[in-house]
Each structure stands twice: as structure tokens, then as C-alpha cells.
Amino acid sequence: MDRRPSPWRSSIMVGSSVGGWLMLLAAIARPEKTAALVGISTAADHIVMSFNSLSLEVRKEFEEKGEWTVPNKHSEDGVLKFSMNFLREAENHCVLQSPIPITCPVRLIHGLKDEDVPWHISMQVAERVLSPDVDVILRRHGQHRMSEKDDIKLMVYTIDDLIDKLTTLV
Predict the structure, then answer these.
(1) Is the model's pLDDT at 67 over the cut of 90?
(2) How does DSSP assign 82-115, residue by residue?
(3) Catalytic residue positions?
(4) Strand 67-71 to strand 79-83: parallel, antiparallel, or no bridges (unpaired)?
(5) What angle do CA 81, 82, 84 make, to 5 degrees?
(6) What pTM does this model have?
(7) Residue 24: which region, alpha, beta or left (left: phi > 0; alpha: psi -120 to 50)?
(8) What is the β-pairing status of strands 34-40 and 67-71?
(9) Average pLDDT of the chain?
(10) Domain ranges of the chain
(11) What is the Cα–Cα distance from 33 to 25, expressed in whole angstroms?
(12) Averaged over 156-161, what is the pLDDT?
């Protein structure tokens, strides 16, 4: 079976934050359906690493409660809640400990002012992806949501550029 992507039967996947991590996992699972990736503030392994960086005492406290609550200014109630089952499952899907078997073009956009997911995670993804066609774009004033007009223009331009690239390869 030919597992190389073809533009007429594969997709450019776009994922933001944890969606960027899921995008990577989907591309690993279905390379024949993946023409290119655009990650925005990609949070690969970030939830697991953040939880594991807590002291043993604090982790035990959350494990006893059955969930980990994290302050978050973007949610309605001011916190994100992760069940211990979710965290245990997430550990099975970490990608930054070895080469990432993705060979399609990858574009990673991250804001240097991102207070939720450190920009260096995008750099780690770029270092581990096997594709020879990987670009990291760092926005000096970019926040986690990358919602400013110029951020959105950059995302659209990046996707447009990938479409042009992929259609000229056919």
C-alpha cells in the first residue's frame, strides 16, 4: 500500500494547543491521510510534563481527589480540570521522548508571550519530527490563543502557502 500523502485524498491538519498534540497523534496514526500539519501553540506532552513537575506530595493530593485542577484565565470557571484517568491515558501518548515519525511538511507557529504553553515545546517538536520540511515561526508578541489580526493573517498565509506547495507537487 502506498502510504505517501496525495493532495486529493489527504488533509492539511491544523491544531491549536492540546489540539496540536492530537494533530501529531493523528498524523502518526494515519500518515496516508496527512498532507501537511500546522500547529499553533502546540502543547505536545505539556499536560503530562506539567503534572509530573509537581512535587510528589502535591501529585498525591490530586490523585486522592481524582482530578487535577489548573488555574486558567480562558475558562469560564477559571480552572481546567483533568481526571487522573485522563492523565494516565495521556502518558501513553507522549511524543517528545523519541523521533516523531511524521514526514509531511510541518509548520509550527508559537507566541513568545504564551503563558500557557512554553514556546520551546514547538522547538522540541521541530527537532524530533522526521520531516525535512519543518518551519517554526515565533511571534514576538503572540499569546497562547494567537487571536490578534496579524496572528490570524499569518495562519491563513501559512495554510495558503502549504496548499500552493502541495498542489505544485502533484
Answers:
(1) yes
(2) EEHHHHHHHHTT--TTS-B---S-EEEEEETT-S
(3) 17, 114, 144
(4) antiparallel
(5) 140
(6) 0.90
(7) alpha
(8) unpaired
(9) 93
(10) 48-88, 97-131+158-170
(11) 12
(12) 97
